[in-house]
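The pair is quoted verbatim as follows:
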Amino acid sequence: MSLRSTLGAALAASAVVAGLAVSPAQAAHDDMRDQAGLGAPGSRTYNPNAPLGSADNPLIIGGQDQALLSSKQVKGLLESKRNRSAQAANGNTAQLASGCVIGAYWSNCNSVPNFGTINIATSLGSDHHEYITQQGWLYDSSQTYKTYMDRSSNGGASWQGQLGLVLNNSGWGDSIYDGPPYVSRGCLYSYTTSLVWCTGWH
């Protein structure tokens, strides 16, 4: 199940900034520059000694203490996911009242001053588990950017990065499985500044 397909019209209407068209030459140029930053999609390992805002030590909305979760924090997140899954299996699929994205099962919207917006939202699959996706944009429309999801099975010590990648567009990415044992986060990367901001783990 995909938020992008189910809620396309409503979510598109909620986007403040329209995506910019990227030429093949510009995309190739940005990909070459990116090799020194995020690199290709794949596995990453958290490194608190890496430059803040880099691929292995992204800036975290809400505080750097959310970059690597404690075992207690992971347990709490996974317990919440299991509870929501059990409720869904019992027919309780009502949207969570605190969500900021209309039509999403769960959502969280974040604004970084002088940088951009990164939103994450989940939908329920037929397996009663959540599937998560991201949406974002930079406030400076002259910069190129990308949004994507990171997914971890060890609380952020390492992760599979750049899932559901969207280049220079404020649309939603492809949904990825976000049930136990995984936690996921949405990220926004600027090719111009080589900075990456991510949400906390969900």
About this structure: Strands lie at 42-45, 59-60, 106-112, 116-124, 130-138, 145-152, 158-167, 176-177, 183-190, 196-198. The helical segments are 3-6, 8-14, 24-34, 71-89. Residues 65 and 183 are 15 Å apart (CA to CA).
